[in-house]
Write a structure and sequence with these properties.
mainly alpha; 11 helices; globular
Length: 211
């Protein structure tokens, strides 16, 4: 702080201060420092994104989205070397919208920017989650089944598909993976002498026999 009294516009000191503030969870102070850095160097991409992140952490979702939109308006054309980074920026913007309870806006963003989004698998997963939150389980189920074909071992996909089909876990807050483990433990303890046991099938929502 003494260094700032001597040189208030020293970018390196301000970056160090911002790092200290985020480590100490001083979010309001972090917001102020990132704003000062943006004022000093508004042509720096990191300053724009860090300022948006600061407001995101402070719970100002709408303002964070506005900052990201303002930054996008300064871009003329995205060079191929920065295409993936811009894709991640768009995905982050959709995340902020969703956390700000603007699921439809987030879904629209992913649809409109589909060609610029490089992580197709992650985008599909996010769209399925958004559709589920928007109470559109049939559309979400279609996407989850596509994801299930690509990665049948992803328990998050099974959880999403269960929610689409109205299959509830054994207890509130329990994940599909925990449900499977508990089912296996219960079966082995109660039917130790039996030659078979029952578990939930993630594909049909019905019990199947495991030899």
């Amino acid at each position: 702080m003494n260094a700032l009294r001597i040189d208030r516009d020293n970018a390196q000191i301000l970056r160090d201060l911002a790092m200290l503030q985020i480590q100490m969870r001083d979010i309001p102070g972090f917001v102020d420092t990132r704003y000062r850095l943006l004022q000093l160097r508004s042509n720096n991409r990191n300053n724009w994104i860090s300022f948006a992140i600061a407001h995101h952490l402070d719970g100002n979702y709408e303002l964070a989205v506005q900052i990201l939109t303002a930054y996008e308006s300064t871009l003329d054309e995205i060079p191929p070397s920065e295409a993936y980074e811009h894709s991640e920026l768009l995905a982050y913007k959709a995340l902020v919208l969703a956390e700000g309870q603007q699921q439809q806006a987030a879904l629209d963003l992913l649809d409109h920017q589909q060609e610029k989004l490089k992580d197709k698998l992650g985008t599909t997963h996010t769209k399925a989650q958004l559709l589920l939150q928007l109470n559109r389980p049939q559309e979400a189920e279609t996407l989850y089944r596509k994801l299930l074909v690509l990665n049948p071992d992803d328990y998050r996909v099974h959880e999403g598909l269960h929610l689409c089909l109205g299959v509830k876990p054994l207890s509130e807050g329990q994940t599909w993976q925990q449900q499977q483990q508990q089912g296996a433990n219960n079966s082995s303890s109660s039917n130790g002498s039996s030659s078979s046991s029952s578990l939930w099938s993630p594909h049909s929502g019905k019990k199947r026999r495991l030899l």
